[in-house]
Amino acid sequence: MLSPLAARKAEKLGYQNVRVFHAGMPAWKKAGNLVVSETAGLKRLNELDASYILIDLRPTGEIEKGHIPKAVAAPNADVASLKDQFPKYKKADIILYNRNGDLKSAAKAFKEITGWGYKMVSILSGGLDAWQKAGNKLTAGPAESKIAYVRKLLPGELDVEEFKALVLKPGGDALILDVRNTKETAEGTLPNAKAIPLEELEIRLSDLPKDKTIMIHCSTGVRAEMAHNVLKKAGLRSKYVNAKVKFDKEKKGEYTITD
Amino acid sequence: MGKRMLTVLCVGVLAAFAMGLSQVLGAVSDQTLPSKSDKSCLKCHEYDKQDNILAGKLKNVSRKAKTIALEIGKDLEVVHYDDATKLENAPTFKKIPMGESVRILYFKKDGKAYAKEVVVKKGIEVPKDELISAEELAKLVAQGPEKGKYALLDSRPGTNYDQGHIPTAKKMPFFMFDKLKDKVLPKDKSVLQVYYCGGFT
Question: Do B166 and A35 touch (CB under 8 A)?
Fold first, then answer.
């Protein structure tokens, strides 16, 4: 909502030809256009110790002379060969670069990756040259051979694999809480799970133990996160899992947990 | 204006002062609950002087549980809704865009926060002839600023720009506008300027 305000300011300064691209960045991306990122953005990801995917699109020979640290090679811009190493998480930061930031030669890889559904893809502005010019170091030798992306868990979030292990081997101080509605839980629940629909959670807080960590799931993770916040406010210890939990309608007791 | 109407008005105004204007405006049933707003909302609204308001960015909506989660600062507030909840500026709860600014008038029952009214922020109106579409802009960008004779300006915070922006755009965060204008804006006042940001939020 800032662009119309900025346009108004420009008009006040006497600019006569001011327009607003009101739908902004989301619409630009949705239309399949290229997105550019800055060296400063990549540096910030490093400072935050965030996980991201950096892909060097140059030929192998050039990559071995020097590349940006943590880069994975996609020699001759062939990103399709890396596809099965990409994470499921579609909002992963993915940065592509070549020597000078030339958009035309990076466009194919960009479109291929956004075509797989990734939403945070960009081409590094000015490429390797800009990175170096900003005083950043290069790594010599071969680039990383595999994408190593680990999504950082959000505060209160429980790792899906940990949750799966907990379902198979309950106990300790953990209690599994299912916050789906009664219609959904009638189709099945996880073993040892307690079920309280999110819509009833506040009035049934006394049903929950204070001495356990309550591990919350629903069918997607959306309601589980909401429930986590309700419990947090009530002073109960909890975590939530961002997982798709599905129950087999035919075979009672069969379920799948995926991220 | 009739004498009687004037009297009513005076009494009304007096009552408003007596109760504190905020209470008259914000009264929901008979509860007075503290308001909680995201800092960004308080730039233009005085929710902190009203009661029973929750204002922040929409995190998500669960249709199955009939709950709305609002992000207010670092907190997430979960509010229930039902068929009696009034919704403004959106066709259905599920259709409110994520991250949109939302104001909720709430009350509490059995420890649950209920929404009496949910108001989605209305976008600032931009005159139609001032708008530019993604296609038009893409054509300009393909030509480049020199050939296309334009300046493209990104109004979002600088960190957003660094993370990903439209090719050929210049970094011009709205809150730095006055500081940057001489450095970033074209000297020629007739040159086409296109502003964009994160969309209708």
Answer: yes
**pLDDT, chain B, mean:** 85
C-alpha distance from A111 to closest chain B C-alpha (Å)? 15
Please give the ipTM for the structure prediction: 0.77
What pLDDT, in 10s, does the model give residues A44-85? 999 988 999 999 999 999 999 999 999 999 977 789 999 999
Tell me the pLDDT tens digit for each residue of A129-172: 999 999 999 999 999 989 999 888 888 999 999 999 999 998 78
Does B191 contact A17 at a Cβ distance shorter than 8 Å? Answer: yes
Out of B112, B130, B181, the one facing A20 most closely (by C-beta) is B130
- Under an 8 A CB cutoff, do A25 and B185 touch? no
Q: What is the DSSP string of B109-174?
A: ETTEEEEEEEEEPPPPP--GGGB--HHHHHHHHHHHHHHHTEEEEE-S-HHHHHH-B-TTEEE--G
- A203 contacts in B (CB within 8 Å)? 110-112
Task: Give residues with Cβ within 8 angstroms of B125, minimum separation 6.
Answer: none
CA distances from B25 to B29, B32, B34, B52, B116 (A): 12, 11, 14, 10, 14
Active site residues of A: 218
